[in-house]
Amino acid sequence: MNVTVLLADDEHLVRAGLRALIQAEPDLSVVGEAGTGAQAVAQARQLRPDVVLMDVRMPERTGIEATAEILTTMPDPPRILIVTTFENDEYVYAALREGASGFLLKRARPAEILHAIRLIAQGTTLLYPTAIRDLVRRFGRPPARDALRSARLTDRETTVLRLIAAGLSNAEIGAQLYLGNETVKTHVGNVLTKLHARDRTQAVITAYETGFITPA
């Protein structure tokens, strides 16, 4: 399978470096570039990429606004990977809340960038529990406990949510709870549905912001 990628960054040199890296891979290809948030939205709609590498600070429209528009207005939208200079950035947290599938630092090693693209193209979120916890501690909203209470998670689902927040994969959750992979997938799917979360990252953010999990 060839994974198509849209590059959205206002720095030409950053886009050129990412293009050279991605185009060298036989299973990845760059289908377009955008230098502003508005261009990112337009290109995503026109080119229908599998993955968008999105900078958060761009002219015309921020990466946060572009992420929100792409994910809420496009049918079967692309997965969005935030690429940022600073890890503890309010913009990064806002983009994750809008549904971005994860984030990477611009100084990440080439192998990490390629792995991240392939990972989220398969529908997996790029979840760093420690980073999410730190972002919530700095930029999270005050706990709104009723939001989680109204989801009516079962005891098993609350356990699964805690393990997701700890960064465990489905296989690791299954091993810890002595459950088969399909059963774990069902529980994870139920958690996401009940929390109205697009993916695991949004579910974890909800868990923190409702006070279900307290950042240490």
Keywords:
216 residues; alpha/beta; five-stranded parallel sheet; 5 strands; 52% helix; globular
Largest sheet: 5 strands, parallel
Helix content: 40-55%
Mean pLDDT: 86
Count of DSSP strands: 5
For the terminal residues, how far apart are their CA atoms? 41 Å
Order of H and E elements: EHEHEHEHEHHHHHHH
C-alpha geometry: globular
Radius of gyration: 17 Å
Bin the strand percentage. Answer: 5-15%
Neighbour order of strands in the largest sheet:
2-1-3-4-5
Instruction: State the helix count.
Output: 11
Low-confidence blocks of residues: none
Helix/strand class: alpha/beta
Write the layout of secondary structure elements.
Layout: E1 3-8, H1 12-23, E2 28-34, H2 37-47, E3 51-54, H3 63-73, E4 79-84, H4 90-97, E5 102-105, H5 110-121, H6 129-139, H7 145-149, H8 155-165, H9 170-177, H10 181-194, H11 200-209
Parallel strand pairs: 1-2, 1-3, 3-4, 4-5
Helix pairs in contact: 2-3, 3-4, 8-10, 8-11, 9-10
